[in-house]
Task: inverse folding
Protein backbone atom coordinates (compact mmCIF):
# COMPACT_ATOMS: atom_id res chain seq x y z
CA UNK A 1 0.00 0.00 0.00
CA UNK A 2 1.56 3.28 -1.07
CA UNK A 3 1.30 5.97 1.56
CA UNK A 4 2.72 9.28 2.70
CA UNK A 5 4.92 10.18 -0.20
CA UNK A 6 5.14 13.59 1.46
CA UNK A 7 4.20 13.23 5.16
CA UNK A 8 2.03 15.93 6.65
CA UNK A 9 3.17 17.22 10.03
CA UNK A 10 0.72 18.40 12.64
CA UNK A 11 0.89 22.12 13.37
CA UNK A 12 0.56 22.53 17.13
CA UNK A 13 1.42 26.24 17.33
CA UNK A 14 -1.07 29.04 16.73
CA UNK A 15 1.38 30.96 14.57
CA UNK A 16 1.61 28.02 12.13
CA UNK A 17 -1.83 28.70 10.64
CA UNK A 18 -1.96 31.64 8.27
CA UNK A 19 -3.17 31.99 4.69
CA UNK A 20 -5.76 29.50 3.45
CA UNK A 21 -7.88 27.22 5.65
CA UNK A 22 -7.87 23.92 3.71
CA UNK A 23 -9.83 21.59 6.02
CA UNK A 24 -11.92 21.35 9.18
CA UNK A 25 -9.62 22.69 11.90
CA UNK A 26 -7.27 24.33 9.40
CA UNK A 27 -4.69 21.53 9.53
CA UNK A 28 -4.54 17.83 10.25
CA UNK A 29 -4.06 18.30 14.02
CA UNK A 30 -7.57 19.90 14.02
CA UNK A 31 -6.54 22.63 16.48
CA UNK A 32 -8.98 25.53 16.04
CA UNK A 33 -6.35 28.28 16.12
CA UNK A 34 -5.19 30.90 13.60
CA UNK A 35 -2.07 33.07 13.50
CA UNK A 36 -3.79 35.98 11.68
CA UNK A 37 -3.95 39.45 13.22
CA UNK A 38 -6.16 42.55 12.85
CA UNK A 39 -9.35 40.49 13.16
CA UNK A 40 -12.25 42.57 14.55
CA UNK A 41 -13.97 41.63 17.79
CA UNK A 42 -17.15 43.48 16.83
CA UNK A 43 -19.27 43.75 13.73
CA UNK A 44 -22.84 44.65 12.82
CA UNK A 45 -24.85 42.98 10.09
CA UNK A 46 -27.63 45.57 10.28
CA UNK A 47 -25.22 48.51 10.32
CA UNK A 48 -22.79 46.86 7.87
CA UNK A 49 -19.92 47.52 10.27
CA UNK A 50 -16.87 45.42 9.30
CA UNK A 51 -19.02 43.39 6.88
CA UNK A 52 -17.18 42.71 3.62
CA UNK A 53 -19.96 40.67 1.99
CA UNK A 54 -22.85 38.31 2.78
CA UNK A 55 -23.60 35.18 0.72
CA UNK A 56 -26.91 33.28 0.95
CA UNK A 57 -26.80 29.54 1.65
CA UNK A 58 -29.43 26.84 2.17
CA UNK A 59 -32.11 26.88 4.85
CA UNK A 60 -30.01 24.78 7.25
CA UNK A 61 -26.22 24.96 7.26
CA UNK A 62 -24.04 22.71 9.40
CA UNK A 63 -20.91 22.52 7.24
CA UNK A 64 -17.92 24.65 8.17
CA UNK A 65 -16.32 26.83 5.48
CA UNK A 66 -13.04 25.81 3.88
CA UNK A 67 -11.04 28.46 2.00
CA UNK A 68 -8.40 27.57 -0.60
CA UNK A 69 -7.01 29.14 -3.76
CA UNK A 70 -9.53 32.00 -3.92
CA UNK A 71 -12.51 29.72 -3.36
CA UNK A 72 -14.77 28.92 -0.40
CA UNK A 73 -16.50 25.56 0.02
CA UNK A 74 -19.48 25.15 2.38
CA UNK A 75 -21.78 22.18 3.01
CA UNK A 76 -25.48 23.10 3.23
CA UNK A 77 -28.85 22.09 1.76
CA UNK A 78 -30.62 23.15 -1.42
CA UNK A 79 -33.05 26.05 -1.12
CA UNK A 80 -33.26 26.88 -4.83
CA UNK A 81 -31.79 30.38 -4.43
CA UNK A 82 -28.40 29.56 -5.88
CA UNK A 83 -29.63 27.04 -8.46
CA UNK A 84 -33.35 27.75 -8.96
CA UNK A 85 -33.49 25.08 -11.67
CA UNK A 86 -32.67 22.34 -9.13
CA UNK A 87 -35.78 21.59 -7.07
CA UNK A 88 -36.36 19.73 -3.83
CA UNK A 89 -34.39 18.68 -0.78
CA UNK A 90 -30.76 17.94 -1.66
CA UNK A 91 -27.38 17.84 0.02
CA UNK A 92 -25.02 20.35 -1.56
CA UNK A 93 -21.51 21.73 -1.31
CA UNK A 94 -21.45 25.33 -2.50
CA UNK A 95 -18.37 26.94 -4.05
CA UNK A 96 -18.10 30.73 -3.70
CA UNK A 97 -15.55 33.28 -4.85
CA UNK A 98 -13.41 34.27 -1.87
CA UNK A 99 -13.08 37.98 -2.65
CA UNK A 100 -16.76 38.67 -3.34
CA UNK A 101 -18.93 35.77 -2.12
CA UNK A 102 -20.14 35.29 -5.69
CA UNK A 103 -21.67 31.87 -6.38
CA UNK A 104 -19.47 29.77 -8.68
CA UNK A 105 -20.85 26.20 -8.63
CA UNK A 106 -22.40 23.56 -6.42
CA UNK A 107 -22.16 19.81 -5.95
CA UNK A 108 -25.69 18.39 -5.71
CA UNK A 109 -26.58 15.05 -4.10
CA UNK A 110 -30.08 13.55 -4.10
CA UNK A 111 -31.47 12.28 -0.81
CA UNK A 112 -31.32 8.57 0.01
CA UNK A 113 -34.68 6.83 -0.59
CA UNK A 114 -34.56 5.23 2.90
CA UNK A 115 -35.35 8.59 4.50
CA UNK A 116 -34.45 9.95 7.91
CA UNK A 117 -32.96 6.77 9.32
CA UNK A 118 -30.01 7.25 6.93
CA UNK A 119 -30.40 10.77 5.50
CA UNK A 120 -32.29 13.22 7.72
CA UNK A 121 -34.47 15.71 5.81
CA UNK A 122 -33.17 19.26 5.25
CA UNK A 123 -29.81 18.62 6.96
CA UNK A 124 -27.82 18.93 3.75
CA UNK A 125 -24.14 18.07 3.86
CA UNK A 126 -22.42 18.42 7.24
CA UNK A 127 -18.99 17.36 6.03
CA UNK A 128 -16.32 20.05 5.62
CA UNK A 129 -14.05 19.23 2.66
CA UNK A 130 -10.34 18.61 2.71
CA UNK A 131 -8.76 20.47 -0.22
CA UNK A 132 -5.51 19.15 -1.69
CA UNK A 133 -4.16 20.62 -4.90
CA UNK A 134 -7.05 21.03 -7.35
CA UNK A 135 -9.26 18.45 -5.63
CA UNK A 136 -11.76 18.55 -2.77
CA UNK A 137 -12.68 15.52 -0.69
CA UNK A 138 -15.83 15.26 1.44
CA UNK A 139 -18.56 12.85 2.56
CA UNK A 140 -21.96 13.32 0.93
CA UNK A 141 -25.36 12.87 2.58
CA UNK A 142 -25.56 9.63 0.59
CA UNK A 143 -22.61 8.16 2.56
CA UNK A 144 -20.19 8.55 -0.35
CA UNK A 145 -16.59 9.67 -0.17
CA UNK A 146 -16.38 12.26 -2.95
CA UNK A 147 -13.40 13.57 -4.90
CA UNK A 148 -14.23 16.59 -7.09
CA UNK A 149 -12.43 19.22 -9.14
CA UNK A 150 -12.22 22.56 -7.28
CA UNK A 151 -13.33 24.34 -10.47
CA UNK A 152 -16.44 22.27 -11.14
CA UNK A 153 -17.51 22.17 -14.79
CA UNK A 154 -16.28 25.74 -15.27
CA UNK A 155 -13.09 24.26 -16.76
CA UNK A 156 -14.76 21.28 -18.45
CA UNK A 157 -15.23 17.65 -17.44
CA UNK A 158 -11.88 16.40 -16.14
CA UNK A 159 -13.06 12.87 -15.48
CA UNK A 160 -12.48 9.96 -15.36
CA UNK A 161 -15.93 10.02 -13.72
CA UNK A 162 -18.24 10.93 -16.61
CA UNK A 163 -21.81 10.16 -15.55
CA UNK A 164 -22.70 13.17 -13.40
CA UNK A 165 -26.46 13.73 -13.09
CA UNK A 166 -26.09 17.53 -13.00
CA UNK A 167 -23.93 18.73 -15.88
CA UNK A 168 -24.37 22.49 -16.28
CA UNK A 169 -21.38 24.83 -15.98
CA UNK A 170 -22.35 25.63 -12.39
CA UNK A 171 -22.32 21.96 -11.34
CA UNK A 172 -19.64 19.79 -9.76
CA UNK A 173 -17.13 17.80 -11.75
CA UNK A 174 -16.69 14.53 -9.85
CA UNK A 175 -13.39 12.72 -10.24
CA UNK A 176 -14.36 9.59 -8.28
CA UNK A 177 -16.90 8.36 -5.73
CA UNK A 178 -16.60 5.63 -3.12
CA UNK A 179 -20.07 4.52 -2.10
CA UNK A 180 -19.70 3.26 1.48
CA UNK A 181 -23.36 2.24 1.66
CA UNK A 182 -23.37 0.26 -1.57
CA UNK A 183 -19.82 -1.14 -1.57
CA UNK A 184 -19.26 -1.83 2.15
CA UNK A 185 -22.81 -2.14 3.56
CA UNK A 186 -22.36 0.85 5.86
CA UNK A 187 -25.60 1.88 7.58
CA UNK A 188 -25.30 5.59 8.50
CA UNK A 189 -27.58 6.54 11.37
CA UNK A 190 -29.49 9.76 10.51
CA UNK A 191 -26.66 11.16 8.37
CA UNK A 192 -23.11 10.53 7.21
CA UNK A 193 -21.18 13.52 8.53
CA UNK A 194 -17.42 12.96 8.59
CA UNK A 195 -15.03 15.74 7.58
CA UNK A 196 -12.08 13.82 6.07
CA UNK A 197 -8.49 14.38 7.08
CA UNK A 198 -5.68 13.85 4.61
CA UNK A 199 -1.99 13.02 4.74
CA UNK A 200 0.15 12.51 1.67
CA UNK A 201 -1.84 10.49 -0.84
CA UNK A 202 -4.33 9.12 1.67
CA UNK A 203 -7.69 10.38 2.89
CA UNK A 204 -9.10 9.06 6.17
CA UNK A 205 -12.85 8.80 6.78
CA UNK A 206 -15.18 7.65 9.57
CA UNK A 207 -18.07 5.78 7.94
CA UNK A 208 -20.95 6.83 10.30
CA UNK A 209 -22.12 3.21 10.65
CA UNK A 210 -24.80 3.10 13.37
CA UNK A 211 -28.08 1.75 14.73
CA UNK A 212 -31.46 1.35 13.04
CA UNK A 213 -34.50 3.62 13.33
CA UNK A 214 -35.67 1.90 16.50
CA UNK A 215 -32.24 2.49 18.09
CA UNK A 216 -32.17 -1.11 19.33
CA UNK A 217 -30.36 -3.01 16.58
CA UNK A 218 -27.20 -2.51 14.53
CA UNK A 219 -28.20 -3.57 11.01
CA UNK A 220 -24.63 -4.19 9.79
CA UNK A 221 -22.30 -4.72 12.76
CA UNK A 222 -19.55 -6.07 10.52
CA UNK A 223 -19.44 -2.96 8.31
CA UNK A 224 -16.24 -0.88 8.63
CA UNK A 225 -16.10 1.99 11.12
CA UNK A 226 -13.04 3.73 9.72
CA UNK A 227 -11.31 3.59 6.35
CA UNK A 228 -8.22 4.82 4.51
CA UNK A 229 -8.61 5.62 0.81
CA UNK A 230 -6.14 6.46 -1.97
CA UNK A 231 -6.91 10.09 -2.76
CA UNK A 232 -5.97 9.71 -6.44
CA UNK A 233 -8.07 6.67 -7.29
CA UNK A 234 -10.67 6.19 -4.55
CA UNK A 235 -9.30 2.70 -3.89
CA UNK A 236 -9.74 1.35 -0.37
CA UNK A 237 -6.34 0.89 1.30
CA UNK A 238 -7.45 -0.49 4.66
CA UNK A 239 -10.44 -0.60 6.96
CA UNK A 240 -11.02 -0.97 10.70
CA UNK A 241 -13.89 -2.77 12.46
CA UNK A 242 -13.07 -2.08 16.11
CA UNK A 243 -16.46 -0.65 17.09
CA UNK A 244 -18.64 -3.22 15.32
CA UNK A 245 -21.63 -4.29 17.41
CA UNK A 246 -20.60 -1.98 20.27
CA UNK A 247 -21.80 1.22 18.58
CA UNK A 248 -24.13 3.08 20.95
CA UNK A 249 -26.03 5.32 18.52
CA UNK A 250 -24.24 6.91 15.58
CA UNK A 251 -20.64 7.66 14.61
CA UNK A 252 -20.40 11.35 13.78
CA UNK A 253 -16.88 12.35 14.77
CA UNK A 254 -14.14 13.31 12.31
CA UNK A 255 -10.55 11.99 12.46
CA UNK A 256 -7.29 13.82 13.17
CA UNK A 257 -3.73 13.13 12.03
CA UNK A 258 -0.51 14.09 13.78
CA UNK A 259 3.05 13.14 14.52
CA UNK A 260 3.25 12.12 18.18
CA UNK A 261 6.57 11.20 19.73
CA UNK A 262 8.08 11.17 16.25
CA UNK A 263 5.54 8.65 14.94
CA UNK A 264 2.63 9.43 12.57
CA UNK A 265 -0.79 8.56 13.96
CA UNK A 266 -4.35 8.86 12.68
CA UNK A 267 -6.88 9.29 15.48
CA UNK A 268 -10.48 8.08 15.29
CA UNK A 269 -13.24 8.59 17.88
CA UNK A 270 -15.59 5.61 17.73
CA UNK A 271 -19.29 5.34 18.30
CA UNK A 272 -18.61 3.06 21.27
CA UNK A 273 -17.14 5.95 23.26
CA UNK A 274 -13.51 4.87 22.74
CA UNK A 275 -10.72 6.81 21.04
CA UNK A 276 -8.48 4.77 18.70
CA UNK A 277 -5.07 5.48 17.19
CA UNK A 278 -3.72 3.70 14.11
CA UNK A 279 -0.54 3.53 12.12
CA UNK A 280 -1.55 5.56 9.02
CA UNK A 281 0.24 3.36 6.49
CA UNK A 282 -1.22 0.01 7.51
CA UNK A 283 -4.10 0.63 9.94
CA UNK A 284 -2.24 -1.26 12.67
CA UNK A 285 -3.67 -0.33 16.10
CA UNK A 286 -1.36 1.75 18.27
CA UNK A 287 -3.56 2.51 21.28
CA UNK A 288 -7.14 2.86 22.49
CA UNK A 289 -8.71 4.84 25.31
CA UNK A 290 -12.15 4.54 26.94
CA UNK A 291 -13.61 8.04 27.20
CA UNK A 292 -16.20 7.06 29.81
CA UNK A 293 -15.82 5.87 33.43
CA UNK A 294 -16.09 2.11 33.94
CA UNK A 295 -19.36 2.44 35.85
CA UNK A 296 -21.08 4.47 33.11
CA UNK A 297 -24.05 2.91 31.32
CA UNK A 298 -25.73 3.62 27.99
CA UNK A 299 -29.53 3.90 28.21
CA UNK A 300 -31.71 4.40 25.15
CA UNK A 301 -32.64 8.05 24.58
CA UNK A 302 -29.59 9.45 26.32
CA UNK A 303 -30.82 8.89 29.84
CA UNK A 304 -27.67 7.04 30.88
CA UNK A 305 -24.21 8.25 31.81
CA UNK A 306 -22.21 6.68 28.97
CA UNK A 307 -21.61 8.93 25.96
CA UNK A 308 -20.41 8.54 22.41
CA UNK A 309 -18.31 11.13 20.58
CA UNK A 310 -19.28 13.93 18.21
CA UNK A 311 -16.27 16.21 18.77
CA UNK A 312 -13.04 15.87 16.78
CA UNK A 313 -9.78 14.80 18.46
CA UNK A 314 -7.09 17.50 18.66
CA UNK A 315 -3.38 16.65 18.58
CA UNK A 316 -1.16 19.00 20.62
CA UNK A 317 2.15 18.53 22.45
CA UNK A 318 2.18 14.72 21.97
CA UNK A 319 -1.28 14.50 23.49
CA UNK A 320 -4.81 14.00 22.19
CA UNK A 321 -7.60 16.16 23.62
CA UNK A 322 -11.19 15.01 23.24
CA UNK A 323 -14.58 15.29 24.93
CA UNK A 324 -17.72 13.15 24.81
CA UNK A 325 -21.36 13.98 24.16
CA UNK A 326 -24.54 12.77 22.53
CA UNK A 327 -27.12 13.71 19.93
CA UNK A 328 -28.33 17.15 21.09
CA UNK A 329 -31.91 15.84 21.02
CA UNK A 330 -30.92 13.76 24.06
CA UNK A 331 -30.43 16.95 26.05
CA UNK A 332 -27.86 17.89 28.65
CA UNK A 333 -26.02 15.45 30.88
CA UNK A 334 -22.72 14.47 32.42
CA UNK A 335 -19.79 14.86 30.06
CA UNK A 336 -16.04 14.30 30.11
CA UNK A 337 -12.96 15.98 28.65
CA UNK A 338 -9.64 14.14 28.54
CA UNK A 339 -6.00 14.80 27.82
CA UNK A 340 -4.47 11.54 26.55
CA UNK A 341 -0.77 10.67 26.28
CA UNK A 342 -0.41 9.59 22.65
CA UNK A 343 3.03 8.06 23.17
CA UNK A 344 1.61 5.06 25.09
CA UNK A 345 0.59 1.77 23.47
CA UNK A 346 -2.21 -0.75 23.92
CA UNK A 347 -5.25 -0.12 26.13
CA UNK A 348 -4.09 3.13 27.75
CA UNK A 349 -7.33 4.03 29.55
CA UNK A 350 -5.44 4.19 32.84
CA UNK A 351 -1.80 4.68 31.83
CA UNK A 352 -2.50 7.30 29.17
CA UNK A 353 -4.78 9.59 31.15
CA UNK A 354 -2.93 12.88 31.69
CA UNK A 355 -5.95 14.67 33.15
CA UNK A 356 -9.71 14.57 33.10
CA UNK A 357 -12.59 16.92 33.89
CA UNK A 358 -16.23 15.87 34.00
CA UNK A 359 -19.44 15.47 35.92
CA UNK A 360 -20.51 18.75 37.50
CA UNK A 361 -17.41 20.40 36.04
CA UNK A 362 -18.12 19.58 32.39
CA UNK A 363 -21.26 18.56 30.51
CA UNK A 364 -22.03 16.70 27.29
CA UNK A 365 -20.29 18.38 24.39
CA UNK A 366 -20.21 18.26 20.61
CA UNK A 367 -17.39 20.80 20.45
CA UNK A 368 -13.75 20.43 19.44
CA UNK A 369 -11.21 22.14 21.69
CA UNK A 370 -8.82 24.94 20.72
CA UNK A 371 -5.37 25.22 22.31
CA UNK A 372 -3.09 28.26 22.17
CA UNK A 373 -0.16 29.34 24.36
CA UNK A 374 -0.81 26.56 26.84
CA UNK A 375 -4.48 27.44 27.29
CA UNK A 376 -7.25 25.09 26.26
CA UNK A 377 -10.73 26.35 25.36
CA UNK A 378 -13.68 23.96 25.41
CA UNK A 379 -17.45 24.38 25.19
CA UNK A 380 -20.38 22.17 26.13
CA UNK A 381 -23.97 21.80 25.00
CA UNK A 382 -25.17 23.47 28.20
CA UNK A 383 -23.72 26.76 26.96
CA UNK A 384 -20.50 27.10 28.94
CA UNK A 385 -17.14 28.17 27.53
CA UNK A 386 -14.18 26.97 29.62
CA UNK A 387 -10.57 28.12 29.77
CA UNK A 388 -8.29 25.40 31.18
CA UNK A 389 -4.58 24.90 31.61
CA UNK A 390 -3.61 22.52 28.81
CA UNK A 391 -1.00 20.72 30.91
CA UNK A 392 -2.99 20.17 34.10
CA UNK A 393 -6.67 20.66 33.23
CA UNK A 394 -6.95 23.33 35.94
CA UNK A 395 -9.84 25.71 35.25
CA UNK A 396 -8.99 29.38 34.85
CA UNK A 397 -12.51 30.58 34.10
CA UNK A 398 -15.97 29.54 32.92
CA UNK A 399 -18.35 31.76 30.94
CA UNK A 400 -22.09 31.13 30.55
CA UNK A 401 -23.48 32.04 27.11
CA UNK A 402 -27.04 31.13 28.22
CA UNK A 403 -27.57 29.26 24.93
CA UNK A 404 -26.89 25.79 23.55
CA UNK A 405 -23.55 25.36 21.78
CA UNK A 406 -23.05 23.05 18.81
CA UNK A 407 -19.91 24.57 17.29
CA UNK A 408 -16.41 24.95 18.68
CA UNK A 409 -14.28 27.74 20.15
CA UNK A 410 -11.80 29.40 17.80
CA UNK A 411 -8.68 31.37 18.80
CA UNK A 412 -7.33 34.21 16.68
CA UNK A 413 -5.58 37.54 17.29
CA UNK A 414 -5.77 37.35 21.08
CA UNK A 415 -9.48 36.52 20.96
CA UNK A 416 -11.65 33.46 21.56
CA UNK A 417 -14.80 33.26 19.42
CA UNK A 418 -17.79 30.97 19.90
CA UNK A 419 -21.19 30.81 18.17
CA UNK A 420 -24.44 29.88 19.91
CA UNK A 421 -27.84 28.48 18.99
CA UNK A 422 -29.36 31.86 19.91
CA UNK A 423 -27.60 33.44 16.93
CA UNK A 424 -24.80 35.20 18.77
CA UNK A 425 -21.03 35.05 18.47
CA UNK A 426 -19.34 35.65 21.80
CA UNK A 427 -15.82 37.12 21.73
CA UNK A 428 -13.63 36.70 24.82
CA UNK A 429 -10.09 37.85 25.42
CA UNK A 430 -7.52 35.05 25.10
CA UNK A 431 -5.92 34.65 28.53
CA UNK A 432 -6.20 33.35 32.06
CA UNK A 433 -8.56 36.15 33.18
CA UNK A 434 -12.18 36.14 31.97
CA UNK A 435 -12.77 39.24 29.87
CA UNK A 436 -15.75 39.53 27.52
CA UNK A 437 -14.93 41.75 24.55
CA UNK A 438 -18.17 41.59 22.55
CA UNK A 439 -21.37 39.70 21.80
CA UNK A 440 -22.33 39.95 18.12
CA UNK A 441 -25.80 39.27 16.74
CA UNK A 442 -25.71 37.23 13.52
CA UNK A 443 -29.50 36.96 13.20
CA UNK A 444 -29.81 33.16 13.15
CA UNK A 445 -28.51 30.08 14.92
CA UNK A 446 -24.81 29.32 14.60
CA UNK A 447 -24.18 25.57 14.46
CA UNK A 448 -20.68 25.97 13.03
CA UNK A 449 -17.28 27.35 14.05
CA UNK A 450 -15.70 30.70 13.10
CA UNK A 451 -12.90 30.49 10.53
CA UNK A 452 -10.19 32.95 9.49
CA UNK A 453 -8.37 32.78 6.16
CA UNK A 454 -6.16 35.39 4.49
CA UNK A 455 -7.07 38.05 7.05
CA UNK A 456 -10.86 37.64 6.79
CA UNK A 457 -13.17 36.19 9.45
CA UNK A 458 -15.97 33.93 8.22
CA UNK A 459 -19.11 33.24 10.26
CA UNK A 460 -21.83 30.90 9.04
CA UNK A 461 -25.32 30.95 10.50
CA UNK A 462 -28.09 28.63 9.35
CA UNK A 463 -28.78 30.57 6.16
CA UNK A 464 -25.80 32.73 5.21
CA UNK A 465 -22.03 33.13 5.20
CA UNK A 466 -20.60 36.44 6.44
CA UNK A 467 -17.16 37.72 5.47
CA UNK A 468 -15.92 40.08 8.18
CA UNK A 469 -12.85 42.29 8.11
CA UNK A 470 -11.65 45.37 10.01
CA UNK A 471 -12.45 48.77 8.62
CA UNK A 472 -15.28 47.80 6.28
Result:
Amino acid sequence: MAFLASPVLAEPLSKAKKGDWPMWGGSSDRNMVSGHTNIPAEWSIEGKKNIKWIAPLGSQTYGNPVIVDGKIFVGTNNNGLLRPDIKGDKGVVVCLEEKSGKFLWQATHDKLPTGRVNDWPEQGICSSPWVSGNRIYYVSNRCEVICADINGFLDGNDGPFKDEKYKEKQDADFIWKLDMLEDYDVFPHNLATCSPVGAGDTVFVATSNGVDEGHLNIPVPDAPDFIAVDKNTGKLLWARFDVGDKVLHGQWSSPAYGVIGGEPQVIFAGGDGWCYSYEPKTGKPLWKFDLNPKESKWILGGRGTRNNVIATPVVYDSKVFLCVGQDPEHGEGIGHLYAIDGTKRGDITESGKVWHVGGDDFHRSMSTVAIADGLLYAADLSGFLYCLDAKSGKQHWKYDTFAAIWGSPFVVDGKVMLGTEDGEVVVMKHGTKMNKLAVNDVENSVYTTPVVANGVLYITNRRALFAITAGR
